[in-house]
Amino acid sequence: MTTPHHPPSSPTRPHQAMGAGGEFDTIRMLMSRWGDLAADIGDDAAVLSPITSGVRVVSTDACVEGVHFRREWIAPYDVGVRAAAAALSDLAAMGAAAEYVLVAFVVPDGWRTALGAVADGIGAQVRRAGARIVGGNLSRGAAFGITLTVIGTAARAVSRAGAQVGDVVVVTGLLGGPGAALAAWESGVEPTGWAHERFVHPSPRLAEGALLAAAGASAMLDISDGLAADARHIAAASGVDLVIDDTRLPLGEGITAQNALRSGEEYELLATMAPSAYEALACAWPAGGVSLTVIGVVGPIGAAHRSGQGAVSPGHDHFRENS
Amino acid sequence: MTTPHHPPSSPTRPHQAMGAGGEFDTIRMLMSRWGDLAADIGDDAAVLSPITSGVRVVSTDACVEGVHFRREWIAPYDVGVRAAAAALSDLAAMGAAAEYVLVAFVVPDGWRTALGAVADGIGAQVRRAGARIVGGNLSRGAAFGITLTVIGTAARAVSRAGAQVGDVVVVTGLLGGPGAALAAWESGVEPTGWAHERFVHPSPRLAEGALLAAAGASAMLDISDGLAADARHIAAASGVDLVIDDTRLPLGEGITAQNALRSGEEYELLATMAPSAYEALACAWPAGGVSLTVIGVVGPIGAAHRSGQGAVSPGHDHFRENS
C-alpha cells in the first residue's frame, strides 16, 4: 500500500472516478481499519525481518467477483474473509506459519463504499493467522478483485512431490460444504447453515499444516480444486497413485462421497505420510478441533486401477469427464 | 502458478469458458514460454533461497486494462513489459536486486489468445532483471489485469523517510515521456518515437538504484505519480521540504518543465543524498547510460515557500489543484 496508482486519463476517467486525493484517502481509510496490523506501510517495498531457521515461502492468490463469488451471495466482509483464507491456505499447505500479507485491490465505483468491510474481513483473518499487512496496491477496474500475496516461514516446507508407496492419505476437517453451498445457490435456494458457513467463512488450516509438517508429512496441499483433482496433483507430482476409499471420506451433514470428491475451495489439507508417522500424530492431534481422517493409501502407479474402487485418484484422469 | 482456480459455476460460466483442462493447458503454455525462468513452479507456495547478507524486500503492483493502459495503445507484449517494469521499479527504488516474481493474471475471454505475448513481455523483463518466476495465479474476469509481486534483496534498503536538510535531490534519466505519450493518444494522435518508447518500454532502474543505495542515498522512490507528487512523498515521510529547481530538470525532447513535473509512470528514481556522497557517485556513475541529474536541495519545512520558486515540492500540496 505504497504509492497508489495515479493512472492516466482513460476510458473510465480515472482522475474523476478516483483521483489522487481520493486514492490516498482510501489508503488512509484502510490503514485506519487495519491499525497495528499494517503499521509499517509506506515505502515502495516492504522489508522482511530475517529468519534464523527454516525457509521463507511465498504464494499469490486472486479472488475475482463473478468468478470466485457473486456479490449477492456473500457480504463484503465475508468476501475479505474468503479471499484471505484462500491465500493463507497455501501457506498452511506448505506447513508454514503466516508472517506477511500484501493486498492488491481492484475496485469498481460500485464497490467503493464496501471496501472498508472487505478490508475488515481480510484483517480478521490476518490477525487470526498472526501475520501483518506490509504492502499492497489500489487500482480502479471494471470488476472487483483482490490479489493477496502471503509470505511465511516453514521449519520444513512440504511439497506435493514426496508421497511414497505405503504412505497413508489423510485429510483434515469435513468435506463437501462449499460444493453444497454453491449447488444450493445455483438452484435458487439459500444454502443450509453448515454448508453456507463453510463457503462464507473458510479457515486456513495453519495450525494443522504445521502439525502435519512436523509429524513428517511426505506430501501436502490444500483442497482447492476438489479432493479427487487435488489427489491427482499429489499423485502426478510424486509419481504414485493415491487410492482413496470413498467410504472413509469425512462427510459434512447431507453430503455424498461423490459430492465431497468434487467440492472445491474446501481449504482443508490433503497429505500423505508414513503409517508410523500418522500413528504418532493421531495421538498428538488436538481433540475437539478439526478432525484428521485416513482416507486411503499410496500405491505404485496402476494401483488405483487394480483396486477396483470407484473413488480412486491416480495419476490418470478418472474424473476428467465430470470435473 | 500452482493450482489454478477452478471456480464454481458463475454468471460468466467459468467451467465452459475456461475449465479445468483449459486452465492447466494455459499454465503449461505459460511455463513453456517462460522456460527456465519458471522452472520450479508447482507447489502451493514457492520456497525462497536463504540470503546470507542484506535484507529481503517485497512489493506488489497491479496493471489493469482501461486504467493503466488502453488495449488499442499498446501490443500485448508491451503490456507485459510495462507491468513487469512497474513492479520491478519498486525494487529499484529500495536499492534492491530482483530475485523472484509472482504473476497473477485475470484474463477475459477476449485476451486469451494474447496471453502468451503478454507472458513473453513479462519474461523479457524478468530475464533482464536476473530474476525468476516462482508462482502466480490464473483467473478469468471481466477486465484484463496483471498483479505482480516482486521479491529482492538489498544490501541496504533505502526508505522514503531519510532525506536530511542539506542533501541534494537527484533524478535518473530524462523526464516527461510517458506524460507526452498519453497526451498525444488522448488528443487522437500517435505519440512521437521517444515519448512512445518511454511509455511502452519503461526500464526499471535496478542497476542505478543499487548504485544510489551503495553511495548512501538517504531517501529514494521511483517516479510513478509524477516528480512533483513523488517529491512530496519524500518530503512528507522525511519531515523536510524538497526545493526543486525546475530549470535543472532533465527534460526529454519537446518536454516542458511543467509537463515533466506531472508526468507519471516514469519509473525513474528520485533520491536524496549528502553532497559529498553525490560527488563520489557522480565520478563513478556509468558514462553513456542513464543520466543522473541534481535538480534541487533538501531544506527544512518551509524552505520551499521561502525559495519563491514555482516548481518547489514541499510537504504541502502546491500541485493538488492540478494533479
Characterize the structure shown.
Chains A, B: Mg(2+) 4 binds at residues 44, 59, 90. Chains A, B: Belongs to the thiamine-monophosphate kinase family. Chains A, B: GO terms for molecular function: ATP binding; magnesium ion binding; thiamine-phosphate kinase activity. Chains A, B: Substrate binds at residues 68, 265. Chains A, B: ATP binds at residues 136-137, 160, 224. Chain A is of the alpha+beta class and 323 residues long. Chain A has 2 domains: 20-43 and 53-154, PurM-like, N-terminal domain (60s Ribosomal Protein L30, Chain: A, 2-Layer Sandwich), CATH 3.30.1330.10; 168-307, Phosphoribosyl-aminoimidazole Synthetase, Chain A, domain 2. Helix content of chain A is 34%, strand content 21%. Chain A contains 11 helices and 10 strands. The first copy, chain A, has helices spanning 14-17, 20-34, 76-92, 115-128, 177-186, 193-200, 206-214, 227-238, 257-262, 275-284, 303-307, and strands at 46-47, 55-64, 97-107, 132-140, 145-154, 168-172, 219-222, 241-244, 269-273, 292-299. In chain A, the strands form 2 sheets. In chain A, strands 7-9-6-10-8 form a 5-stranded antiparallel sheet, with helices on both faces. In chain A, strands 2-5-3-4 form a 4-stranded mixed sheet. In chain A, β3 (97-107), α4 (115-128) and β4 (132-140) form a beta-alpha-beta unit. In chain A, α3 runs parallel beside α7 and α5 crosses α6 (193-200). The longest helix of chain A is centred in the N-terminal third of the chain and has 17 residues, at 76-92. The first copy, chain A, is globular, with a radius of gyration of 21 Å. Chains A and B meet through β1, β2, α3, β3 and β4 of A and β1, β2, α3, β3 and β4 of B. β1 of chain A pairs antiparallel with β2 of chain B, so a sheet runs across the interface.
